[in-house]
Every structure is written in C-alpha cells, then in structure tokens.
UniProtKB/TrEMBL annotation:
GO molecular function, one term: metal ion binding
Alphabetical UniProt keywords: Hydrolase, Metal-binding
Keyword Hydrolase tagged: yes
Alphabetical list of Gene3D superfamilies matching this protein: Fumarylacetoacetase-like, C-terminal domain
Region (Disordered) location: 9-29, 270-316
UniProt record similarity statement: Belongs to the FAH family.
Domain called Fumarylacetoacetase-like C-terminal: residue spans: 73-276
Ranges of compositional bias, category Low complexity: 291-316
Classification lineage: Bacteria, Bacillati, Actinomycetota, Actinomycetes, Kitasatosporales
Natural source organism: Streptomyces paludis
Descriptive protein name: FAA hydrolase family protein
A biological process from GO: carboxylic acid metabolic process
Keyword Hydrolase among record annotations: yes
Length: 316
C-alpha cells in the first residue's frame, strides 16, 4: 500500500492507495482515513491503515508524509560510490546522525545560506521506515521491524563536512533532508535491494544507480544499528547513495539558487524540491561568560589554535 498525507479541504488527511506505481497527484485516486488518524498512528500500530471503502480523493497531492523521530545516516554504502572516490570498503557501516529539523516534504525548498556553505550536494537514498522497536535484533529477524520505505535526499554541505572533521553541521542544516512523497509498506516492495535510484538536477540525470550495489543491506544495517541504539517506530534509516554526487564530479558541481532537484527510487516515488539561496540572520552577540565557557569547553577561538584533529573525509 502507498500511504500519503494530503491536504484536503484545508486539512491534512492520511490517505492510502493500492496501485502498480508510485506516482500520485491529480487524477490518481486515494482513499481517506478517518479524520484525526495520522501516518504516525499507523506506523505505531495504534490505528489501521486507510480502508479502500473510505472517501475517495483525486484532487490532492502529497505533502510531508509524517515527522520522523530519529534519522540514522549511513555513509559509504554503495560500491560504485567507494570506487568513484578511490577509498576502501568499510569493515562495518559508517553511522552519522541526520537531524529531524532538517526534514522537509515534497515541493518544499532546500534553502542554503551562501555565507555558510557553497558546496551543497545531492544524495538520493532509499529510506527505511522502522515499524517495531528494535534493540539487539539479529539479522535474520531485522526485516520484521521494517514498516516500509520512502525516498530521501541526504543534502550535504561538503565544505562544512571538510572543515568540521565530522558530519553534524554538514548533514544537519535546516531543509537538508527532503522526504516523501509517500511511504510504501514493506509488503508492497518484494526486494528493496533491486531498486533503481536516480537524481535529476534541472531535468539532467546526475545519479543513476541501484540498491543492488549496497555494501551493507537493510537487514545488516538494522541489526548493526540496534546493537548501539534503540530503533523506534517512525525512525528512519538512510541507506546511502550511489555514485554521481556533484562534489566528486570533475569539475565539481553544486546546487544553486533556482535549481530543481528530483529524487527518485523505483517503485517508491519521486520527490521534487526547488533550491533557494537565502541569507541567514546575524549571529547572536555572546552573553557574559560565554567566551570563558567556550575556552573551558574547547569550543572557542583557543580551540581553533590547537593542532587539527585528523578529519573524516567529506564523502557520503
């Protein structure tokens, strides 16, 4: 089943559809869940999915399906990506956090401040939606904890990644995680490791890979993550991206104001997001004692004078 959140008569409503393809919008029939039922409710198992006998809708397009809890990013998980970068295959999944505040839905703008970053890159990914709590889950039972799948783009500020030596700012800026347009239940995706993954910028295909190229597959990722963290219903696992990111092109390429970004995973859906450049507000004035506290914590200017810590690579 394809599940979406629609704006119908000025209200957000959960809707479902059984169909052969992921495309949605005017002319594609959805059936509405009862008012007040959300996708979060269905994922958590406290409400049933929309019934085919529900009110039909054909004149509404999906918005952000739901607001995820924790987003777990996986880096360096496609063989063609690793080959493109000339690196070695990791011995275990490379984990990083993606902030929930970075999530936007279809049609919303990816916004960046050029004073903060000028190397804004794309990473279309298959996103796994967790449906049952997972802690110390063996690989053989990991798929029992999957509710379904959606599309994500792990937008990345490569200059911040390189500068920081870790990925929190570079991956976590506001609007840097388009997600949607639908969530497809696991039973409607026979094999998540046989899906085409594509990115287009202004209609030009820049990424065209397949989930068959993953180093660590979905069961391995869930089992590995659950050794360290409790995965809860609604959490999302971003499974990595294939070759073709702009920062690794020659010459490098970055998203610019006015670009249109399309993120597509076969059988799941296609996200379309405009890209906008904006200026951030002024930095807040430091409060009394802030400078001393920063010096004690190692986060102020004194820390900047210390020898640099070896940086993580600014890749995917």
């Amino acid at each position: 089943m394809h599940l979406a959140t629609l704006v119908h008569q000025s209200r957000r409503r959960l809707a479902g559809r059984h169909g052969p393809g992921p495309e949605s919008g005017p002319g594609h029939a959805w059936y509405l869940a009862p008012p007040g039922v959300t996708l979060e409710d269905v994922i958590a198992g406290v409400a049933p999915p929309p019934d085919p006998d529900g009110e039909p809708v054909t004149d509404a397009a999906p918005v952000l399906p739901y607001r995820p809890g924790t987003l777990h990013g996986i880096g360096l998980n496609y063989r063609d990506t690793i080959a493109e970068m000339g690196w070695e295959t990791p011995a275990e999944p490379y984990l990083f956090p993606k902030l929930a505040s970075s999530v936007i839905g279809p049609g919303e703008a990816v916004v960046f401040d050029p004073e903060l970053t000028r190397r804004v890159d794309w990473e279309t990914e298959l996103a796994v939606v967790i449906g049952a709590e997972a802690r110390h889950v063996p690989r053989a039972r990991a798929m029992d904890h999957v509710f379904g799948y959606t599309v994500a783009n792990d937008i990345s500020a490569r200059d911040l990644q390189d500068r920081d030596g870790q990925w929190l700012r570079g991956k976590g800026l506001d609007t840097f995680c388009p997600l949607g347009p639908v969530v497809v239940t696991a039973d409607a995706v026979p094999d998540p490791h046989r899906l085409r993954v594509r990115t287009r910028v202004n209609g030009e295909t820049v990424q065209d890979g397949t989930t068959a190229d993953m180093v660590f597959r979905v069961p391995e990722l869930i089992a590995h993550l659950s050794r360290f963290f409790t995965l809860r219903p609604g959490d999302v696992v971003l499974t990595g991206t294939p070759a073709g990111c702009g920062d690794f092109m020659r010459p490098p390429r970055a998203l610019r104001d006015g670009d249109v970004l399309e993120s597509e995973v076969e059988g799941i859906g296609r996200l379309v997001n405009p890209v906008r450049e904006t200026a951030a507000g002024p930095e807040p004035e430091p409060r009394p004692g802030d400078r001393a506290a920063a010096a004690r914590s190692g986060s102020g200017p004194a820390a900047a004078r210390r020898p640099a810590v070896p940086q993580e690579a600014g890749g995917r």
